[in-house]
Each structure stands twice: as structure tokens, then as C-alpha cells.
Amino acid sequence: MGSWPDGHDRREPSVSWSPTSGFNEDQIALKQSAKAFAERELMPHMDDWERAGEVPREIQKKVAQAGLLAVGFPERVGGDGGNLFDNLALQEGFMEAGVSGGALTAIFTHGIALPHIARNGSQELIDTWVKPTLAGDLIGSLGITEPGAGSDVAGITTRAVRDGDEWVINGAKMFISSSVRGDFVTVACRTADTGAHGISLIVVPKGTPGYTVSRKLDKMGWLASDTGELSFVDVRVPITNLVGQENHGFYYIADQFVTERIGLALQGYGHAIRCLNLTAEYVAQRTAFGKPLNANQVVRAKLVEMRRQTEVARTYTLEVARRYAAGESVVAEACMAKQTAVEAGCWVADAAVQLHGGMGYMRETEVERHYRDVRLLPIGGGATEVLTDLAARLLGYAPDKK
């Protein structure tokens, strides 16, 4: 082995890349376990779930029984313990196996539906909704986005008014993941006319009169994620379904923004890792003009650029996650990590389709699915343009408001 005199490594590189830097030994083992589970239990059914437009409910229980559903949630609320990096390692394993963005979202929607309840909710709400969901028995969703208010959380208009010992809710929500299968939705409602200071979170169970999934949405990608438009017409729920304090909902939501954006960044570079590995294998096997595609310098250069962008995105994302876990304020950095990683994911997926040629455009080729799935990431969780402007203001690059 060793090196050439010019310093070049003589070892034959592995076509498949599975990065482990940034994780400790336990997290690496968790990642490998999650990847093996996904390859065995999820990947054989991915095409069926894409066509059905949803992941079967029983998968939640299967993932829970494997010890992979409740990672990152404290044991007091029914979780398996662990920290942010445990959760990142687990999901990185799923994505390396090839799990679609839609399936990943469908399985782990509780990652955005439950934290507000687990951290701020009453014991009754935790026992009723959090614990059963983490056990795989229930499915929850988070209702924030509205037809007229996307990234502008402070501009929501769905209203909840107190009437005795009940809330009466009227309004609509849009693009709500897992709401078609969901057993409950944590709804952001306006409870006072004070902008961001007048929003509350209220749990609404499925089957409550007046609460309906008005339609299941058809999307370009994330086909395995059931996504709905929700309608609330004089929906009545108990006062006790309020999460935490009244008019504190915006702060509860904002508290989760950093981890949500780190998670979306992971999806971005996760798609990139999978696309790179699939493409490296394809160009090594596919021949044209009497030689494998990777015999062409232009193809090899493209693979290196795919690897470079993916490594940079992953390294930066995990560094921002490390700083967040250490207690630093990294709101601007999380915005930039998301942008870096999702742009890398989009670029690498596009390059993967190009290097696969005509097959890359076929539904039977996995990179085509990643190409569609990754395109949502610059939009979801805060559009790139909105988050870039937020970062500019936080970094002092915007003029002071007069």
C-alpha cells in the first residue's frame, strides 16, 4: 500500500461512501443499525409506498420496536433518550440506505409534531399524545402553514376563541405532512391580535366535529408522504388541549426552528450521499464507446465535485449542530447550513441524473426520485430567500429599522 512518490494514495477507493466523522462510536453503531433496518424493512417497499402516496401505519410500530422511532426524546415522555447527534446519525443511516424524502418525513413527522408538547405540554397531553406516538401507536402532525401564510408564521389567521371550557377554532392549514393518516394535529392558532405574540398551540384530535382533511395533495416529490389541506369550522376542543401557555405558541415554534433546519440540511446532504454512491457505481459499470463511463476524465471530475459539495455540506451542518448542542446561539448559522446542504443536494441530484443519461430520467431509476424529493428542501422549513434575509439581519448586514 502506501503512497506514490508524488504523495498520491495508491489504495483503491471504495465506490460506496459512508462517512462517520462527527459521530462517536455509539452513534456510528446506531447509524449502521438504522441503515441495515432500512435496507431490510423499508427499501423493498419504497416503490409501492410511492405509488400508494403514503407509508402504511404499521411501519410506525415496526420502527418503534426496532428502537429507532423515539431516539432523541427523553425517557420521561416515552422516548429512548439520546441527543441531537444520535438522531442525526440515525436519519443519516436511513438516507444512505436510499429511503425517500417522503418516506423519511412520513415516519418521523413526530419530530416536528411532538417537541412542543413534550417540552411545554401538560402531563395529560404527554400521556395522551406523546407517549403513544413514540410507541408507534399514533401518528401526529403539525399545522402551521396556511394558504395565505407560508414562511410568515406571525401572519397566520386560523383563530381560536375561548367559549367556556372549550376552544372554538376556525381556519385552514396547507401542506401539512402526515395529516391524512394522522390521529391528531398540533395547530398554530391566533388567540390574540398581537402578531407573533398572539399565537397559541392547540391539539386537535382526528374525528373532532368540524375538523376535516379537505383534500389530499398531489406533489411533484415526497410521494410517500401523505400531505393534506385542513379545514376547521367551529371545531371545539377542551381548554386543556392548549400546549403550554396561551399566546406563547410562536416562541415554542421558534424554539424548534434550529433543529428543524439542521434536520432539513441533513436531508439535503443525505440525498447527495445516496446520489453520489449510486452514480459512482453506475459509471463504473456502464460502458460507452468500448469503455466504462468513469474512464472519461470529465466524468471523474464530476464525481469529485459531487463529493466535494457533499462533504462541505455535511461538515458544516454537523459543526453548526455541535455548536447548538454546546449552547451557542446559531440561528443564522442554521439558516446558512440549510441553504448550503440543500443546494448541494439539488446540484448533486441533478448531476446524478445527468450521468445516468436517459435512465436517470426514468421512474425505475432511484436517482430520479431523489431529484424530485430534494427539490422541496429549499422551500420547506423556511424558503431559502426568507432564511437568507433572516441571516442577513442576524449577522448585522441589514439596515437598522427606523
Automatic annotation (TrEMBL):
An annotated Gene Ontology molecular function: flavin adenine dinucleotide binding
Tell me the ranges covered by the Acyl-CoA dehydrogenase/oxidase N-terminal domain, including all copies. 24-137
Q: Where is the region Disordered?
A: 1-23
Biased amino acid composition, Basic and acidic residues = 1-13
The processes (GO biological process) annotated in the record are:
fatty acid beta-oxidation using acyl-CoA dehydrogenase
Question: A cellular component term (GO) from this record?
Answer: cytoplasm
Organism domain of life: Bacteria
| Domain named Acyl-CoA dehydrogenase/oxidase C-terminal: residues | 247-393
Record-linked Pfam families: Acyl-CoA_dh_1 (PF00441), Acyl-CoA_dh_M (PF02770), Acyl-CoA_dh_N (PF02771)
Q: What is its cofactor? A: FAD
Record keywords: FAD, Flavoprotein, Oxidoreductase
Keyword Ribosomal protein applies: no
Under Gene3D superfamilies, the record lists: Acyl-CoA dehydrogenase/oxidase, N-terminal domain, Butyryl-CoA Dehydrogenase, subunit A, domain 2, Butyryl-CoA Dehydrogenase, subunit A, domain 3
Q: Which residue range or ranges hold the Acyl-CoA oxidase/dehydrogenase middle domain?
A: 142-235
UniProt lists the family membership as follows: Belongs to the acyl-CoA dehydrogenase family.
| The protein's name | Acyl-CoA dehydrogenase
